[in-house]
């Protein structure tokens, strides 16, 4: 009993501390991101300076970022091997790198930034409290849980995501309580403590839970899985092309920025820059052009693959919601339901986290849609193949797939 009480006492304290740090960091980040988005939308001419912003981001990361350039993959590598401390500099680097990416019109997300800040801040506690290797793994999981939960307002999904994403091959029961503690504290600190709200989504109509309706989710889930695979391979492919042909890393986002500017200017594709949250909301309300998901996939792959900073998850939400919206023309299910299934389904396939994505869907859209969301996430997970947007992720049995 004494060891158990000691475990609860230690991790209640550490989990709470990580939650406060991660939640506060996410609150500041979301406030800055909102400012950057509003400023860019009011002054679209800022897009012309995206290549210059890319040069600044690339130069700082190349000369001062050290291994911070690995981003989320660094968190996974340290969880698996525990080689080196995650540098505190990762927090300001990814924070301002992401803000500048959004301010000047890059297509990116926010999850990666929040997770990296949470992991970087949490890992500082390793040396402050002299934590051993196992405790360090748990504290990293807490950082990821807190960052994810606070940036999306989904504490249950944040905790489950950190466990499912980081412990895909080896689940550690000791990580459960700390992860949930950090996730809920971070969410409360961000939303209640700092007053930072989150986008509300809704599925007003849930189709009856008949066998026919459930079977219709299977082809939709297959499409979501293939879209997830396309998204992941686009980002990795663009990154490899830039590394192969541009030797000096700071020049990569310059060229990527020029290409983004030209594409957006000549195709009037302003809908696809930044987070794209207004378009995601529209996907739940009215029919949209069928190619929206392809445009966002390509523009995000070009932005992040060339070296700009930000997350992939909100673009995945965009891709999934707009694909579900397009599928409503052929699948006899409510438009908003298919958009919601795509929202979490493509995310599930691209990150290999079907449980977290199912729970996230229920937190965002309501538990009534749970069976549809869960089926879409599972089918997408299976059909997305062995790939992942995170190259360092260990994905168990899926690594044997073609």
Give a summary of the structure in a few sentences.
The protein is an all-alpha fold and 402 residues long. It is built from 16 helices and no strands. α1 packs parallel to α4 (90-103).
Characterization of the model:
By secondary structure, this protein is mostly helical. The protein folds into two domains: 2-193, Clc chloride channel, CATH 1.10.3080.10; 211-400, Clc chloride channel. The protein is 69% helix and 0% strand. The chain is built from 16 helices and no strands. The radius of gyration is 20 Å and the shape is globular. The mean pLDDT is 92. Keywords: Membrane, Transmembrane, Transmembrane helix.
Low-pLDDT regions: none
Q: What spatial form do the alpha-carbon principal axes imply? A: globular
Order of helices and strands: HHHHHHHHHHHHHHHH
Helical residue percent? 55-70%
* Count of helix runs: 16
Tell me the radius of gyration. 20 Å
What's the level 1 CATH class of the largest domain? Mainly Alpha
What is the number of domains? 2
Beta-strand proportion: under 5%
The biggest sheet, with number of strands, parallel, antiparallel or mixed sense and barrel status, is: none
Secondary-structure-based class equals mainly alpha
- Distance separating the two termini: 48 Å
CATH superfamily grouping of the largest domain: Clc chloride channel
* CATH architecture assignment of the largest domain: Orthogonal Bundle
